[in-house]
Specification:
Structural class: alpha/beta
Number of helices: 16
Radius of gyration: 21 Å
Strand content: 15-25%
Number of strands: 14
Largest sheet: 8 strands, mixed
């Protein structure tokens, strides 16, 4: 079977939260795997993907600003753990109005609506009539931006519907699960002139933004390597009968063997290296361990007769991937949610003048440090903390404040008519390891070509998360 397009994708009802995961195909058969011999013989510059890329149907969205507006009107789709936690951040911004909410579970939508009213805003429209009611939210004329926080398999169809209805859309990770879906989102963004963004909060972490500014200031010298991960023990949550709305997340481990959640690790490192802004990700080689952790946890914790006993887990407990860039840099990605270990996104960057490593944070730079002793990363806060973190030193919300910083900056860009810090090309690039790592593991680690979603625009330097404070 061709691992690049094993079967037609499932187009199940969009907000169904208890169904099994969708198909695992990559969708574009022309993007064949790169052999190890070809990769070894390739020059440092990227092999061209121009022949494989679909013909552009609209102009690039790189650097395209939003149309400024005094009030940004937001609709939220999906009000479970993530969606419900984000409403308060929008409500904290005086120029933002939450005008509509949607979830097939009426109680969740009503709780969200009550938060809006409690914040002193008019009651939002509530959409709870079946799994397709999100289409009615997207069709509203008073929505500027749609926030998608639903199970992964519904991300693509909702993002598609939002853009076709003329809305900018932000999607929780990952933006889609198939390579053909990623290309379609790129094409739709260009055709509709609407931005489709991966809501990658980790790009706005204080450490990540400090490292980004230090990298751009040359503190690490010429960049060589980086690493990012999502190593987070989710076993108890994935088997919990109440945390997720059904077993949708656990069931992805019965469908794919690769990195199911690369964005938190890949996004920040891609920013450090100006991926899609002077460099680009060229190929990925992935390797996976046996899938043992979820089955062992089930054996110890789940009663006989639980529906989980019908599941067969194939997702590697730990996936390790190596991404090569056009400039010859190497990015290591890891994913592990099935074994016991402390939380880590690794978040490392190295160059000719030194290295930073997170979890715990530590740094070694020449000429600042010597004798092979780690230095104090906090010593660089005053000079290199991003203006967003200086302006919002104690932000509200979860994940150490990065959620708020992300929402604040995105809504600021929409209000002032600025380009977003990242766009559909970043969303597609950061998500491409989902299908491509699966294909690489099945091909015994053979490199898989990462498409040039920018169609050559990556060669042009442009701004990103390391933004200038608006006047």
């Amino acid at each position: 079977m061709n691992e690049q397009s094993p079967h037609t994708p499932s187009r199940r009802k969009v907000l169904r939260t208890t169904a099994a995961a969708a198909g695992t195909g990559l969708g574009i058969g022309a993007l064949g795997s790169v052999t190890a011999e070809a990769a070894a013989a390739a020059p440092a510059e990227a092999p061209s993907t121009a022949a494989a890329a679909p013909r552009r149907k609209g102009a690039t969205m790189a650097g395209v600003p939003f149309a400024g507006r005094s009030t940004v009107r937001v609709g939220l789709i999906g009000l479970g753990n993530r969606g419900a936690s984000m409403i308060g951040l929008y409500l904290a911004l005086p120029w933002v109005r939450v005008v509509a909410v949607c979830d097939p579970v009426r109680e969740k939508a009503e709780r969200a609506a009550a938060k809006v009213v409690a914040a002193g805003q008019p009651a939002p429209a509530v959409y709870t009539h079946g799994e397709d009611d999100y289409e009615n939210l997207c069709a509203r004329s008073d929505v500027d931006f749609v926030h998608v926080a639903t199970p992964w398999d519904s991300h693509f169809p909702i993002a598609r519907a939002a853009m076709l209805a003329g809305k900018h859309v932000g999607v929780e990770c990952p933006v889609a699960m198939r390579l053909d879906e990623l290309w379609e989102l790129v094409d739709l963004s260009e055709q509709t002139r609407r931005h489709c963004m991966q809501l990658e909060n980790c790009c706005y972490g204080r450490n990540e933004m400090r490292v980004l500014r230090m990298a751009h200031a040359g503190k690490f010298g010429r960049l060589l390597h980086g690493a990012g991960a999502y190593n987070h023990d989710l076993r108890a949550l994935m088997f919990s009968p109440t945390y997720y709305e059904g077993p949708w997340r656990r069931r992805w481990h019965t469908q794919l063997r690769g990195d199911l959640y690369p964005n938190h690790g890949f996004g920040p490192v891609a920013n450090y290296m100006d991926v899609n802004r002077g460099d680009r990700a060229v190929s990925i080689s992935s390797f996976g361990t046996p899938a043992l952790g979820l089955a062992e946890y089930r054996e110890e914790h789940m009663p006989p007769g639980d529906p989980s006993w019908k599941e067969s887990y194939i997702g590697s407990d730990r996936t390790i991937s190596l991404v090569q860039t056009a400039k010859g840099r190497v990015i290591r990605l890891e994913h592990d949610v099935s074994t016991p270990h402390p939380y880590s996104r690794i978040n490392s960057l190295g160059g000719t003048r030194g290295v930073f490593e997170d979890y715990p944070e530590r740094i070694y730079l020449e000429p600042d440090h010597k004798d092979d002793r780690w230095g104090d990363f906090a010593a660089y806060a005053g000079e290199f903390d991003h203006w967003l973190w200086k302006e919002h030193a104690n932000p509200p919300g979860g994940h150490g404040g990065m959620d708020y910083i992300m929402v604040y900056r995105l809504m600021q860009c929409m209000q002032l008519g600025l380009p977003p810090d990242f766009d559909v090309y970043d969303a597609a690039t950061w998500t491409a390891p989902v299908p491509l790592s699966n294909a690489s593991i099945k091909a015994n680690g053979a490199p898989q070509e990462i498409p040039d979603f920018t169609r050559g625009e990556w060669r042009k330097a442009r701004s990103g998360v390391d933004s200038v404070k608006p006047a």
